[in-house]
């Protein structure tokens, strides 16, 4: 795995439930919780929770070393990691932008039911090699 500043690694605690797992992420927002129907789902939900909580941040909480995490007998401690740059790319927020285009293109686009936002997004992705 390529090491970069956008890859975040945090310990999590899986708490077995009657059905599935609840997941504690102690270092995020003074303790964040999520859940999953099975272990794989629980860990994916934990990754998503980390992404949601930190996507707008630039200063990330320090991760507690895994060996410092204390668990009870039936609990499981492990880690989740997330490339935040990739997370942001795959879960983009939309921003309203005003643009100026020639009037005749607006008229033609409306006649053909063109989604201007979709066309602009596609053109920007192509231009930026995204």
UniProtKB/TrEMBL annotation:
Top-level taxon in the UniProt lineage: Bacteria
* Cross-referenced Pfam families: HicB_lk_antitox
The record's annotation in InterPro entries points to: HicB-like, TTHA1013/TTHA0281-like
What residues does the HicB-like antitoxin of toxin-antitoxin system domain cover?
A: 10-106
**In its UniProt entry, what is this protein called?**
HicB family protein
Specify the species. Answer: Companilactobacillus halodurans
């Amino acid at each position: 795995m390529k090491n970069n500043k956008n890859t975040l690694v945090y310990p999590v605690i899986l708490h077995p439930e009657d059905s599935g797992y609840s997941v504690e992420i102690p270092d995020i927002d003074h303790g964040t919780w999520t859940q999953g129907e099975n272990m794989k789902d629980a860990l994916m939900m934990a990754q998503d929770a980390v992404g949601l909580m930190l996507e707008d941040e630039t200063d990330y909480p320090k991760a507690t070393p895994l060996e410092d995490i204390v668990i009870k007998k039936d609990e499981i401690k492990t880690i989740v990691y997330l490339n935040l740059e990739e997370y942001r790319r795959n879960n983009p927020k939309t921003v309203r932008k005003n643009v100026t285009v020639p009037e005749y293109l607006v008229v033609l686009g409306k006649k053909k039911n063109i989604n201007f936002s979709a066309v602009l997004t596609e053109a920007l992705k192509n231009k930026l090699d995204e």
